[in-house]
Amino acid sequence: MGAPPPEGWGRLIDVSGDVIVWRRGHEKATVALRGPLTAVLLAFYRRLPLDSPDVEVLGERELLEFWLARASF
User: What's the mean per-residue pLDDT of the chain?
Assistant: First the structure.
């Protein structure tokens, strides 16, 4: 995997403004989904439950559930 880029491995989706913006980086967020890339993607595609031991939800789980219920990939 190598050394992380200067901005980190994380991705942030910012819904605080008029438009949704995503950026690379690692910073405090309302909710975070952490785990191996495959597990995170499976959770985003709703193929892995958020209570799986392969992923960790930090912060407001309800917001993540709300977003996943309405997002389509």
Answer: 85
Report the percentage of the chain scoring pLDDT > 90: 45
What pairs with residue 11 in β-bridges?
24
Write the DSSP string, the chain.
--SPPTT-S-EEEE-SSSS-EEEE-----SEEEES-HHHHHHHHTTSS-TTSTT-EEEE-HHHHHHHHHH---
Measured CA distances, 30 to 1, 2, 4, 33, 47 (Å): 27, 28, 23, 11, 23
pTM given for the model: 0.73
CA 52 centroid distance within chain: 15
